[in-house]
Amino acid sequence: MILLYRKARKVWRSLLLFVPVLVILFQGIGFITVVNESANNTRWASGLFWQTADETLTIDRINEVSPVQNAIVIVLDRLDQEFIEDIKAEDPHFFDPLDGFTEFDDFISYFGSTIPSVAGYLTGHIWRYDMPRSDYYSYAWANAEFFLTLKERGLDIRIYLDKGAAFDTIYQLNGIASNTFEGQLGINKRIALVKLLKLSGYRYAPIFFKQYFWLSPYEFYDAMELTDKTAPYMVNNFGYYDSLKLNGLSTSYIGEKSMIYIHLQGPHPPLNMDENIQYVEESTLTAQTKGSYRIVYEYLDQLKGLGLYENSVIVIMGDHGNFLGNDLERPARTGLMVKPAGAAGTPLQISHAPVSPDQLHATLMEGLFGGSEGFGPAFFDVREGDDVTREYAINLWRYVITGDGRDFNNWRYIGKYPSEFW
For the segment 147-158, what is each residue's pLDDT rounded down to a tens digit? Predict the structure, then answer.
């Protein structure tokens, strides 16, 4: 009897050591499976979209500029021209820091939404909803003459934009951007072990105690260790501002000239930022727009500190304006402010020229090379009163604008795009 007891006790001790190890082993396999499946489903722990390792634009060198010459485009998502005018009415001197800039108050974006507006003005090809979106992205980037020309001339090109806004996979960008994923994702073993033990507790705890051990599979992403070359860029006002303040702008000689595109949240909801870039539970469009511009002012001040402000061509723009519904009742104007290379020390000017994203590439080319390089007229080549025709679409609803876009009498609804690929 005593011998049997000792034998049972020995077996019990072995089980106490063996079972936890076995559980951790099985849960480890499960962990790897969860990570792989979740990555393939393009989800991120916080609920934001996540890109698999080879399909992401990263934050790599986001605070670096060329020591020679730069073309910089800063997009404030949903920047409506009326937001700018409301701020001016409230605070006439708010935009004084934009020395050398010209405000274009008759800028009409291609579309009233990020998709497909961004891909349109970046690549120069507008989606007419005549093919699947992924096919459109592939075609547009394969024929993006502006970026292909810059790449041929050896420019350092960086695009800070999250997946889905203008591309489905990184391969569609044809190696244009230099801030793509490099290296491998690391795992923090301590955090991973804690999560595995918690998961084991949930599995084996009595039913009444399981609630204390429950966790989402996406919590395992907390165990991932990211570097600048692997961390995905995600549109976030606070995240970018904190990075800018913490690290500051610096120069890196990757090439003599750089083309930098930074897409910020701007006044796009959620409205949770006040005019001083502080988090609040509920903000307003005006306050968040002011806070967004103060982020831009910090960038411009640091660029001045490096002595690179005057020589840079800088565009501050919205990808589209505020959502006004399909059946417009007022002009849909998007915010646009441009500083050409060589301009500085002069107050903000205002132009009523009827412009559109058609002139973006030529403007950047002029700033980088002194001429439009065959990309047509620049923003400053369009004159006030020019009888130009522009087109705008919100969802599938199409409008044609003839002449002055500030006058809603010049807007005309012309029908809808086909809905098959919308």
Answer: 999 999 999 999
Per-residue pLDDT of 171-180, as tens digits, reads 898 889 999 8
Neighbouring C-beta atoms of residue 320, cutoff 10 Å:
27
| Alpha-carbon span 42 to 52, nearest angstrom | 7
67 pLDDT higher than 70: yes
Domains of the chain are 2-41+186-225 (no CATH), 53-183+232-416 (3.40.720.10)
Strands 257-264 and 156-160: parallel
Cα gap 391→357, rounded to integer Å = 11
Name which of 112, 129, 104, 114 is nearest 388 in CA terms. 104
Q: What pLDDT does residue 402 have?
A: 98
Look up residue 295 and give its two tokens. 């982020």
Residues in the chain: 422
Q: Report yes or no: 371 and 365 within 8 Å, Cβ to Cβ.
A: yes
**Is the whole model's pTM more than 0.85, yes or no?**
no
User: In this structure, what is the dihedral angle of CA atoms 332, 389, 316, 63, given to the nearest 10 degrees?
Assistant: 120
**Comparing C-alpha atoms, which of 246, 247, 198 is closest to residue 222?**
198
Q: How far apart are CA 311 and CA 258, in angstroms?
A: 12
Q: What are the percentages of helix, strand and coil residues in the chain, rounded to 5? A: 40, 20, 45
Helix axes 81-90, 285-305, angle to 10 degrees: 90
- Terminus-to-terminus CA distance in the chain, angstroms? 78
Q: Which is nearest to 79 in space by CA: 234, 302, 295, 391?
A: 295
What stretch of H or E contains 390?
strand 389-394
Q: What are phi and psi of 379, to 5 degrees?
A: -55, -40
The per-residue pLDDT for range 316-326, each reduced to its tens digit, is: 999 999 999 99
Look up residue 348 and give its DSSP letter.
P
Q: Is the confidence at residue 225, as pLDDT, over 70? A: no
Rounded Cα–Cα distance for residues 168 and 134 (Å): 6
